[in-house]
Design goal:
This protein is α/β, with parallel strands linked by helices and 372 residues long. The protein is 27% helix and 22% strand. A hairpin with an 8-residue loop joins β15 and β16 (343-345).
Length: 372
Amino acid sequence: MSDQVRVRFATNRNPVPGPSLFGPKYRDNNPKHYVTGSIEVRRLSNLPDTGWVPDPNSVQLDSPIDASVFQPTTQNRNDIATFARDRLAAELASTATSQYGLILLPGFDSTFMDSMSRAAQVMSNYKAGDIFCFSWPSQGKLDLASYKADRDAAAKSANAVADSLRRLFAILRALKGNLPILHIVAHSMGNYALQNAVQLIPAKERSALLFESAFLMAADVNYDALSKANELKPLITLAKKVLAYKNGGDLALSLSSSILINNYPRLGQWGPRDLGKLPKTVNSVDCSDVGSTQGDNGESHYGHQYYRLSPWVLNDVVQVLAGIPANKIAGRLPAIPDEGGRAWWIPYDSGSTSRGRGKPGKSKGKPARRKK
């Protein structure tokens, strides 16, 4: 994997002067206005939070888009439709193992530059070929007022996120035969933005399997969201596999539940409610033993950033991406109860060579080309 990647993005953040590029407010003071672009991100060190550094001088911007008027035939050089076309071309032309692309919705407490840095890190750690990131206006601060503002922004950004996804779905339907292998990754409050966005997409446009898998990481949504048609249930139709990664020790979600959500359990802390009643394509992966990660100076991530930093979780994700069956993924064990083979946990001590165990490392396998 290269130490330099170009991250393609969409953002409804306001442009600002200087190296930050975009701020924590809405473009044109309207959450439905967004712009697409790309930026070079380089790995300059192995520091967990600041190792990947975006170069503000490398940014390329396209024409702004108004999500209130859906125009799927309008394409920019860095938009999500072009991303999908380029991804398919790369897959057909290459025999490399990175035969998939990622779409990332980052969580709360993230600036635009944080989102770009984490997108590059996720792309590298997930061994993907490309990544597209939608950066909605998080305040980039870790306090109660900023959390409330982020939750409001994630909901109000639904139109822009939905417009971007509708453009993606339109081009995937137009491709008809072979589809690019795409996985969607939503972290933290990015799941709330996704939940609100899918509700705005007409049912006929989200009635087919368009994603190979959906990774719901530390999801800051209700734990029964996948059971409700007015929440995240439509995602089950869009993705061949839905994986909810949870951490019972996620303090960020614990605080959001107890302070703001009236103690309603969060999906990223408890896993899906009534998992056994959900379609068999939905799995739960418990990361509680391996969800603790630290920042550059050893500061706690409060059990909320394992999706991009925990070696055990990354080992699990990469095997899922490689198409390895759930019961053969090294480093995980059946949970108790195992919900019919759909609930798993990742133990800290996974050194046994028995089936389902193994130390974090390289996985074998290559996703097969998928037809619509």
